[in-house]
Amino acid sequence: MPDDTPNGHHATAASEMRANGEAATRDAKPGRRIGGSAGTSSSGGHELSFGDAWEYAPAPESTKVEIADRYGHFIDGKFTRPGATFATINPATEKKLAEVGLGAKQDVNRAVRAARAALPKWAGLKPSERSKYMFRIARRIQERARELAILETMDGGKPIKESRDIDIPLVAQHFFYNAGWADKLHYAFPGRAAGTVKPVGVCGQIIPWNFPLLMAAWKIAPAIACGNTVALKPAETTPLTALRLAEIFEEVELPAGVVNIVTGDGSTGQALAEHEDLDKLAFTGSTEVGKILARTAAERGIRITLELGGKSPNIIFDDAAIDQAVEGIISGIYFNQGHVCCAGSRLFVQEGIVDEVVAKLRIRMQSLRVGDPLDKNTDVGAINSKMQLERIEEYLEIGASEGVDVWSANGSLPDRGYFCRPCFFTGVQQSHRLAQEEIFGPVLAVMTFRTPDEAIVRANNTPYGLAAGIWTEKAAKIFDVATRLKAGIVWCNTYNKFDAASPFGGFKESGFGREGGLQGLKPYVRL
Q1: Which of 196, 315, 390, 474 has the most C-beta neighbours closer than 10 Å?
Q2: pTM above 0.85, yes or no
């Protein structure tokens, strides 16, 4: 997928305005820019010169991961011979990694039939035996963790230190956690006798590209722990770790048909979602597609859980520990290039501290290293695809046209690949598109508030309701604000912390149902 610009990183008007990490502000005359150093103090006085303070010697991951030229689907316990295929691309290099099966209706039919045939034996298996298979999967994930992390980074673009230290450990954790519940489901739902908690049946699962292997674990682990069987479709741009997980299923001799994986594009996902022999549908992805799938499930009378988009508020009160809060802002929006449905993409700062927060955020942002995702020093990797980068750049243009001020990280970008500098906009108003629409990139909208009541009203003024962050030293304020926010997850004095024992999900257009914890088991059982 060659780039169509001379330097290989999409030189749109918005990106040109940020070419040197320059802070572009506007006065009363439209179009006039005043350039300022990224280290300028908020008072306009002394400037901070970083020089080469943030330069690091490259530390690329040296382990080589074997990738086949072509992959088929994983159906009924074995890989199929590839038929029609499509290419999966390394977004950091724009080079092809492999050809992957393009699933058609007949492939989906075979996968669902295999899951249906395997259901009676798997559901009837002694729960402690199901646990043993899952514990083996979890341990094998740990043993192959480095390989999985590298493959996740190559296929998706996220920094290796995130894949290595966050994604893959959480993948293993979800299998360990749900394995522990397999023979204790009657304790998970009080008042039930042993053996009375039954599986739903055959589960169709569709996962996104931002956390490919972790999303597969979120979906597969609770489903099979409860005795269900699965037909899963990974995202079109990130299928490789799901197929590597299928190899692990083979290694641990998971019974054939318990988990089936069909790769493909949107038509493959549609074929799976509309299949007449599903008992349960689970989807993580865009709100637009989620609405279509909700209608499909309602028409057919099957269960569905949806984890959709977000435009989550991160609220900083004037009594917060500012340096700690700035780290939370960075984690909230620039983690995984902003490809996070619960990203803290709307920052609300109490008026009395906004200058201090913005100044410290500007300084901290300059320390972020954008580049090769396989380099262990990289903080912000590649945008997942050319299409997603173009979407982000469109919003940068929108921000420029709305007259807000933009600050972006310094430094050059790689000549090839899909890269975007982390940035934030100040002077954003509630009516601006930057404050209302999910961008799914390293773009932050900064707004202000005066009172807790105003912060809550503004934070809730969105069609989404997935997550929120609160920063304050007052415990009473935390509990008061948290209970009034319309969000499924509220982090207090932290952000983007996940655990298999903690439920995750949203309200309003962010979906319904929960994944993780006891609550994540409920959609997969009949009580």
Answers
A1: 315
A2: yes
